[in-house]
Amino acid sequence: MGAIDWLTVIAYFVVMIILGFWVVKRIDGSKDYYVAGGKVPWWLAGISHHVSGYSGAVFVAYAGIAYSSGFNIYVWWAIPITIAVFSGAYIMAPRWARLRKVLDIESPTEYLSRRYNLATQQLIAWCGIVLKLFDVGAKWAAIGILLNVFTGVSIFYGIIFSGVVSLIYITIGGLWADLVTDFVQFLITLVVSVVLFFIVFLDFGGFSSFSNVFNQLPDSHSDLFVEPYGMAYVFIYMFIVFLSYNGGTWNLATRYISAPNANQAKKSALLSGSLYLIFPLIIFFPLWASPLIIGEIQDPTKSYALLVQELLPAGMIGLVVASLFAATMSMTSSDANTISAVITKDVLPTISKKFTNLDQKKTLTIGRIVTVIFTLLTLIVAAFYENFGGVIGLLITWFAALVGPIAIPMLLGLFKVFKHSNSTAAIASIIVGLTAFTFTKFTSGYPLYFTTGLPVFCSFIVYVGIGLLNKNNPVSTEVETLLEGISDTSKDNEV
Predict the structure, then answer these.
(1) How far from 187 is each of 139, 153, 323, CA to CA, in Å?
(2) Residues 61, 142: contact at Cβ < 8 Å?
(3) Does residue 108 contact residue 411 with C-beta atoms inside 8 Å?
(4) How far apart are CA 375 and CA 52, in angstroms?
(5) Side-chain half-sphere CA neighbours of 152 within 13 A
(6) Are 17 and 168 in contact, with CB atoms under 8 Å apart?
(7) Is-above-0.85 flag for pTM?
(8) What share of the chain is helix, strand, coil (3-state, %, to 5)?
(9) Per-residue pLDDT reduced to its tens digit, 297-327
């Protein structure tokens, strides 16, 4: 990187911090800090939902898969997410918005104590917190790898540097800072991706470039399904990402919770889904062509960084590095904000009574402290990412397999059809799912679709099965009222 590149990166970080301080005036209490007062416009929530589903891992782990396997990455990653978010726009997003209006919640797990009981809420909260330590750690590790390739800075120092900058603006500005920086980050990533796309597009023949690229690659690069990401894995992954992108990943639920009403939440999901359909094609096309541009490399996860260095002129590499920071920091900061909400609103009050019945100002102060502590813990996980199977291992083996058992009772609990699935069903489904995950970790020889899908499907069967066994048992008035409130569509346009 030259001097102009470094200036670009530094300018990006300065802008992020300025934006964090700029939105402080919007933060009067924890409600503004965690759910932006329920005033987020649909277009901003939609872009933020989309951007928060990306990270530098896309340009490391998934870039490596695109380099090695070709078009399959779009089939097993982008298409399932598109379908999940589009369907969730009608099924899930409005329910989260209604839930905030019915219960005045500030965290996605806050309603669980009323839907089930306190023990269920705490189990889900703690499991989700631990899971996010691994997930966010993987994303810090990814940006550390990219920074290492571009600048020569060690992976460890790259992790620490990006984490500290993100920590500053999210601790100061909360969700509003996250949303505003998401929008800026989306614009940066879009510009870089479009420039890189058109360079490759024109170099390989314009409108015939797609066929020109794949005709020169091995036949398997144009296959829809390539093991271990075969058809069975795609269908299982589609179920998992439906749970994840519609609220099982808590920071994405927050985008819907923060919408003014259910219809705005639905529109934000439709926007996010549309971007998932189109934007990955722009990102991945240069990576599909990368074997023809940079040749054979030993570490495919460095393919994006090497491609950028090969194609872009001096001065633009700094913008690329900024966009990679943008993608990662968007996701990690939104995770940190949401986990802080869960710990502050749902966990700490059960640990000590001194955290109960606090006013908005005191809750805000505690929330900022929790954000700092959680982010520091994720940086520790990132520093030891290789112990967990590397970036791909953390994202696919750990996060994808564990998010389902936690999300099953959390999301299905929002539907009246599952009203007989009580706290016993919720707790049992989580325990069985985690047991299934442990089984797959300590045994070997199973395909990826089995190890990824077994935990979530075991949880689903147990949750639904116990609910069916309880179908003749009465449901409490509190649960009936809650489910009626979040199923009522009559006020979906009211702010």
Answers:
(1) 20, 26, 9
(2) yes
(3) no
(4) 16
(5) 3
(6) yes
(7) yes
(8) 80, 0, 20
(9) 888 888 888 888 888 887 778 877 777 776 6
